[in-house]
Amino acid sequence: MSTLLPKEGPRKSGQRILSLWFPYLCAERILRQRLGRSWRSRPSHPLPPSYPPLVISHRDSNAQRIAALDERAEALKLKRGMGIADARAMHPSIDVVEADPEADRRLLEGLADWCDRYTPLVAIDGEDGLFLDVTGCTHLFGGERAMQDEILTRFFQQGFDVRAGLASTPGAAWAAARFHGDRIVAGGEEAALLSPLPLSALRIAPETRASLESVGLRTAGAVMAAPRAPLARRFGATLLLRLDQALGRLDEAVSPRLPVAPLSVERHLAEPIVLTDDIERLVSRLAVALKADLERRGEGARALALLLFRVDGAVSRIAVGTSRPMREPQLIRKLFHERLTALEQTIDAGFGFDLVRLSVLSVAAFDMLQADLAGETSDDDADIALFADRVRARLGEAAVLKPVVVDSHLPERAVTTVPFAEAPQRRRPPKPDRTAPPMTIFPPERPVRLFRSPEPIEVPATEIPEGPPMNFRWRRALYRVARAEGPERIAAEWWRQLPGEEEAPTRDYYRIEDSEGRRYWLYRQGLYSSASHAAPRWFMHGVFA
User: Fold this and answer.
1) How far apart are CA 274 and CA 129, in angstroms?
2) For position 375, what pLDDT does the model report?
3) What is the helix (H) or strand (E) element at residue 281, kind and residue range?
4) Half-sphere exposure of 164 (CA within 13 A, CB side)
5) Cβ burial, residue 227 (10 Å; 0-12/13-18/19+)
6) 134 and 16 Cβ atoms separated by less than 8 Å
7) Residue 489 near residue 508 (C-beta atoms within 8 A)
8) Which of 204, 250, 333, 365 is a Cys-bridge partner for 208, taking CB atoms 3.0 to 4.6 Å apart?
9) What distance in Å separates the CA atoms of residue 332 and residue 389, rounded to the nearest whole number?
10) How far apart are CA 126 and CA 104, in angstroms?
């Protein structure tokens, strides 16, 4: 349908997209490891001639080819895709390093994390680029030009050669970054930007570019001036889709790599901080600002994240969860105190953190409790929840588990353990109905804890074939039965039975008390009257306290 759109369509008002391109990202990862993060900003830059040009190789069709290279190797007329043997023949002094796509991806994700200081809407663009949706954010940094200059300068200080383009559409910003290097395009000037550029500025496939060039269409302006219907029939709808997206006639979504937090507060610091105590004090101040926003929304935080932006570009992300909605700054500080203590050896402050951000990742309705005359609430579970949250923050989510009832009548499946925060919260019981007649239901008595696996026991004799045992041997000891209650018959769950599988035997459970007053919970698997030739077996499933 895009082929039938008019040449001027609706434009998303106010949208501003910043495109960042790192043309030498793979080589810069290695150079930063060898020479340090700030190697570009040192007085010794550019590198001396004795330092060999760097080439990154990868295997392609049983041949080693150039995947990436640095500026000096590019100045030697080496190109991506060239064979390594040919490159060595032309320049024997080059330094060849094997590609590591996973390391390059981690580096790009780290750069995306660092760009979160400008906007939470950061998306990864291919293998060497980023998209930042800076709509409504530029005034916080002195305007578009000031923000773009700051980003370029700080990336240069971190050892990266980065190109930037700012426009109203991702396509125009992408083209401005890759073909101009440092360009801000005003809204409505996308066509003037793209017209003189080659076809690759439209982000179309190489096959489509070759087909367009074969008929004399070598620039984006030539494509824009050509009739749309013949272009769509011959070259496909993707060409016009990319063109309309770049010109703003069709919207192009920029999907952030991380979910956007509903609430965030941050503090820019004139002097970087290093000590954990300073970080905790900042957490308390930021939590006070969050409390007012949470109260206005009638919500509490269920998951929080603390982002520490280091001066040299590294970002530390620390998350904590709560078992119930939380607002109080002191309680939030206690949780992060436990988490920071657990991570004290792994958090590298480097030269310090110059930006600290506290974000609420998820929220829930906050139920207000009525306080008594002494100012205290009747929430008996608050202390337990806080204790569990602090332990989980220190030792991990699996440190505190809670049993939860499951819909199954088999004892070993009736209860499972889940992390404390994921367990359903206990609700207040409804008020009793005074008009309904009283009913008393006594559920069958069960042990509080069961064995992980039922243990086999020996039963030499029973009073009647289907009755309780007179005595039994368990763990090499003989126990004489003084009293018995039962049976409680539990059949197998037939809906779990696989086709062709033999039905599991029925269980008869008994509550047994021996001659010394100890009580046990055991069962007989199978029936004496069953048509099966296998004799019933007895098992110990639990012990009463």
Assistant:
1) 31
2) 55
3) helix 276-297
4) 24
5) exposed
6) yes
7) yes
8) 204
9) 10
10) 11
Residues 513-522: what's their mean pLDDT?
A: 93
Q: Locate 270 and state its tokens.
A: 């004139």
* DSSP class per residue in 409-444: SSGGGSEEEEEGGGSPPPPPPPPP-TTSPP----PP
Is 487 exposed, middle or buried, given 0-12, 13-18 or 19+ CB atoms closer than 10 A?
A: middle
Q: Which own/partner contact pairs does 142-146 have at CB distance under 8 Å and 24+ positions apart? A: 144/16, 144/184, 145/184
Task: Give me the percent of the chain exceeding a pLDDT of 90.
Answer: 63
5-16: burial string, b at 16+ Cβ within 10 Å, e else: eeeeeebeeebb
Per the rule left: phi > 0, alpha: psi between -120 and 50, beta: everything else, 165 is: beta
Q: Which of 208-212, 414-418, 496-500 has the lowest mean pLDDT?
A: 496-500
User: Phi first, then psi: what are they for 227, rounded to 5°?
Assistant: -60, 140
- C-alpha–C-alpha distance, residues 255 and 238, integer Å: 20
Which of the pair, 402 or 334, is modelled with greater confidence? 334
- Asked whether the predicted pLDDT for residue 166 surpasses 60, the reply is yes
Write the single-letter amino acid at 122: V
Q: Which residue has the higher pLDDT, 365 or 8?
A: 365
- Higher-pLDDT residue of 409, 318: 318
In three-state form (DSSP H/G/I as H, E/B as E, the rest C), the secondary structure along 140-158 is HHCCHHHHHHHHHHHHHHC
- Of 142-151, 183-192, 356-365, 488-497, the one with minimum mean pLDDT is 488-497
Q: Tokens for 266, please give them.
A: 């941050």
Mean per-residue pLDDT, 75-102: 93
Separation CA 136–CA 126 (nearest Å):
25
User: What three-state secondary structure class fits 508?
Assistant: strand
pLDDT at 269 over 70: yes
Give the pLDDT of residue 436. Answer: 60
Tokens 């640095």 belong to which residue? Answer: 70
Q: What is the pLDDT of residue 296?
A: 92
Q: Count other Cβ atoms within 10 Å, centred on residue 403.
A: 13
Confidence grade of residue 531 (pLDDT, cut at 50, 70, 90) = low
Is residue 116 within 8 A of residue 93, CB to CB? The reply is no
Q: Which residue has the tokens 């029925």?
A: 506
Given a contact cutoff of 8 angstroms between Cβ atoms, the answer to whether 103 and 119 are in contact is no
Tokens of 80: 């991506």
* 340-345-347 Cα angle (round to 5): 65
Phi, psi dihedral angles at 375 (to 5 degrees): 85, 10
Which phi-psi region, left, alpha or beta, contains residue 518 (left: φ > 0; alpha: ψ -120 to 50)? Answer: beta
The whole-angstrom separation of Cα 212 and Cα 208 is 6
Confidence of residue 379 (pLDDT cuts 50, 70, 90): low
CA end-to-end distance (rounded Å), the chain: 74
User: Which 3 state secondary structure label does DSSP give 53?
Assistant: coil
Is residue 286 within 8 Å of residue 381, measured between CB atoms? no
pLDDT of residue 88: 93
